[in-house]
Amino acid sequence: MGASGMHRKDILVVDDEQSQLLVLQRFLQASGFHVRSAGDGESALALLQADPSTVLMLDLKMPGMGGQALIDAVQALPIVQPVILVMTASDDASTIIGTMKKGVYDYLIKPIKRQDLLFRVERAFAHFHTEYVLAQIEQEKLLKLEQQQKWTQYLGELQRRPAHKQQIFKNLHTNFNQGGGFGALISLMEFVVADAKEEQGLFVYRVDPEIHRDMRRNLDFAARIMNHFHKLDALESGPLKGATGTVADFYAVLARVCAELKPYADLDQSRILLNDPSAGLGRHTIYWDRELFYQCIYEVIINALKFSPPESEIVVLLKIVGDHVVLNVLNPPPLNPMGESPVIPQDAWHLLKEPFFRIHKHLNEKYNTMDFGLGLPLVDQTMRRYKGSLEIGTLSDHASNADGVTRVISVELGLPLSD
Questions:
Q1: Residue 312: in which H helix or E strand, if any?
Q2: What pLDDT, on the 0 to 100 scale, is given for residue 237?
């Protein structure tokens, strides 16, 4: 693919009706797409051979090489395959079904409504992105088999040390309860106590409104921290709670989280791209706790948002791999003050699962998170308790960056199927 590859909104429109072609080209260009056009199948094929497009939108009925023949020819090319949209004046079901069986992503019935066109084209680009990332994941896994084996050995060592982890969380829970608060809360209380006046045998506390508001905020924060420790403690020492659900239920929770986090993505003009998995998710079952896994999914995706540069694309992929359902969340790495993306060694990623470890020293107050380095330990504990896995690392994409290797952070949750 060309220099900008999967990152540019590049679309090739093919139609033998010049007036229709011109209207489509102008509308899509005005909507922010890079548009090329061709008036016949032969010209379109030549353009794709020279420089493949991300999306190919073609008319089915054209003289010479028609739409069906062009689809076959394109799919035979040794290129990264474009997402194909077809335009047809026919609403005949057999024609549409026959075309879709060729691997066409979507179709548009003429006359085409502009909003419908924009919706389907945007969805086609999102589909290309997620499919491209899925392919990169598979390639990267083949390149990292040795590292995966070491990672599996590490997870095994963690599982053989449950008493150590359990004692950590019990001690933390007890110590923080006995401590009666955290730094800011303690400081605020000192202000209040120092300003107390004794009147008729009683202490009267005069609290500045601003200090009172800060105390309320910090009390809420402390309560959230304690609740988090309670969950970690319960995961280690309490009975396993859950029920049988379907992978379709899991995907519904995933879609809910993505929708709820959209306002946070909008803060930095970022996007969350959720793939559209194949049908049949309802046939596969899992043993899980819906609310607990909601929290885990929320934690992983909001972490991806927090630790990505502005205007990033957070790719969220759900798929069935063997006897597991696998969730991948991928994001560009955070930038240091020099504007660079530091490379974290593969054997150091496990530190992110440890309590109080943070990848970034700055808090992210706009995301309404605790930033104590406790989120991923909860995810790790949950996945291990439900016989799943949490894997964190980087993926290298050698194709999408003409100037070098593009790296993305990959967080992968794997949960065994119970069917």
A1: none
A2: 75
Mean pLDDT value across residues 266-293: 89
Tell which residue, 255, 400, 261, has the closest CA to residue 332.
400
* pLDDT of 174 over the 80 cut: no
Q: Which residue has tokens 């004692």?
A: 167
Q: Which of 291, 183, 288 is closest to 246 using CA atoms? A: 288
Output the CA torsion sign for 250, 256, 258, 261: negative
Determine contact, residues 363/376, Cβ cutoff 8 Å: no
Backbone phi, psi, residue 338, to 5°: -85, 0
CA 33 vs CA 8, 54, 79, 331: distances in Å: 8, 11, 21, 23
Predicted local confidence at residue 190, as pLDDT: 61
Instruction: Count the neighbouring beta carbons within 10 Å of the beta carbon of residue 236.
Output: 18
In angstroms, rounded to a whole number, what is the distance separating the alpha carbons of residues 312 and 265?
9
Question: What is the DSSP-derived secondary structure letter of residue 417?
Answer: B
Which of 392, 379, 377 lies closest to 173, judged by CA? Answer: 377
Site of tokens 């519904």? 252
pLDDT, tens only, 32-64: 999 999 999 999 999 999 999 999 999 998 999
Share of the chain above pLDDT 70, in %: 63
CB 132 within 8 A of CB 391: no
Residue 386 has φ and ψ, to the nearest 5°, of -95, 25
Q: How many CB atoms lie within 10 A of CB 18?
A: 10
Answer whether 0.90 is exceeded by the pTM.
Answer: no
**pLDDT tens, residue by residue, 313-357:** 999 999 998 899 999 999 988 765 445 555 554 544 444 444 444
Q: Domains of the chain by range and CATH?
A: 5-143 (3.40.50.2300), 167-237 (no CATH), 241-416 (3.30.565.10)
B/e letters for 265-302, b = 16+ CB within 10 Å, e = fewer, are: beeeebebbbbebeeebeebbbbbbeebbbbbbbbbbb
Task: Count Cβ atoms within 10 A of the Cβ of residue 69 and give its class: 0-12 exposed, 13-18 middle, 19 or more buried.
Answer: middle
The pLDDT assigned to 13 comes to 96
Sign of CA dihedral 227, 232, 233, 235: positive
